[in-house]
Write a structure and sequence with these properties.
Length: 337
């Protein structure tokens, strides 16, 4: 994102406010001012905003606190809240875990080998990337890469997820620090990246997971992935593959999970949070995880079968577009709109 970012892109508005370098108090004051206007347009049965890049549990907490102060009510009006006042367990892990659950089901639907024992590349080092790596390791895959704005780590033995979380979530340090503990790993600075490409996608892998940012995977990257035998690409970030890259994947019959389907895990757990708030319940981590897995499998199956029904079998982009449009269209027709 640019330096002057919209801190609250998914919260229905924006501002030229740069959160980098700001104190907790400054962030709180901004969130309070924003909610002063936003509260008129949201509600548990109207519009329920959620966080995204730059808007995590801290920001949602400040926004929710101001909403309660203004309305004198405790409602499930925001998702991604801290657990102590109505947030759901596993919201942080949801998108990263979800994209892996989707991919596992997609490979099964397309009669491909699973992820166990396979080398996988992941871009990014935020919540989505780190938890995708975590779930890959849990399933027996070998994630070998991750990246940040300064460079890429390649560890052919498999990444040390515990140390990565310490670096990026606790200490917020550069990935270059990784090789100080793991000297066998390789650090590739941005200055050494291929022209018009990203070092992550030049690493041989069975499956690739772009989990950083929009348009990070270019035509050059897509061609290199095909050349190196990659058979599956699933998007953990929002639209991380360029249009040219997507076309290359589809032309080469790659198992391609588009973001609108593959990274729905975060939205799914937001819905679970709304359900918990409405019933004043707290679900266990295991229950949320099982429901997330079931939801991602259902999404994948629906997309796959829709593509088959409309003559584009194996095309999950068209399948997701058609399935989404049909669901909305059918609802509108049923409501007489």
């Amino acid at each position: 994102m640019p330096l002057l970012v919209c801190l609250l892109v998914e919260l229905g508005g924006g501002s030229d406010f740069d959160p980098k370098g700001k104190s907790d108090f400054e962030i709180m004051k901004f969130c309070s001012a924003f909610m002063t206007e936003l509260h008129k347009y949201i509600g548990p049965r109207i519009d329920i905003p959620a966080g995204d890049i730059g808007v995590g549990a801290r920001e949602i907490g400040y926004l929710f606190g101001e909403y309660k102060k203004i309305t004198s009510s405790f409602e499930g009006v925001l998702t991604g809240k801290p657990f102590m006042f109505g947030g759901s367990l596993m919201r942080t892990e949801a998108t990263g875990y979800g994209v892996i659950y989707f991919t596992k089901k997609m490979l099964q639907m397309e009669h491909k080998e699973g992820l166990e024992g396979k080398f996988c590349t992941v871009s990014g080092s935020g919540n989505v990337a780190l938890h995708a790596i975590e779930k890959l390791l849990e399933l027996g895959a070998i994630p070998v890469s991750c990246s940040d704005s300064q460079g890429t780590i390649y560890d052919q033995r498999g990444l040390d997820i515990k140390f990565l979380k310490e670096l990026k979530l606790e200490k917020r340090l550069s990935l270059e620090e990784y090789i100080k503990k793991h000297s066998e790993a390789k650090y590739i600075p941005v200055s050494k990246y291929p022209k018009n490409g990203h070092a992550v996608w030049f690493i041989k892998a069975y499956a690739a997971f772009p989990c950083a940012t929009q348009n990070e995977l270019t035509k050059t990257d897509a061609l290199e992935l095909i050349k190196n035998g990659c058979i599956c690409v699933s998007e953990g970030a929002n639209m991380p593959s360029s249009k040219e890259a997507v076309n290359i994947f589809l032309e080469n019959k790659i198992c391609f999970g588009p973001a609108k389907a593959a990274n729905a895990g975060g939205v799914a757990v937001s819905e679970f949070e709304m359900s918990q708030n409405a019933s004043m319940q707290k679900w266990s981590f295991e229950k949320v995880d099982n429901k997330l897995k079931e939801t991602m499998q259902q999404i994948c199956t629906r997309v796959s079968l829709t593509a088959k029904d409309y003559g584009v079998e194996g095309n999950y982009v068209d399948g997701a577009n058609i399935a989404g449009f049909k669901k909305v269209a059918d609802a509108m027709i049923a409501e007489g709109m």
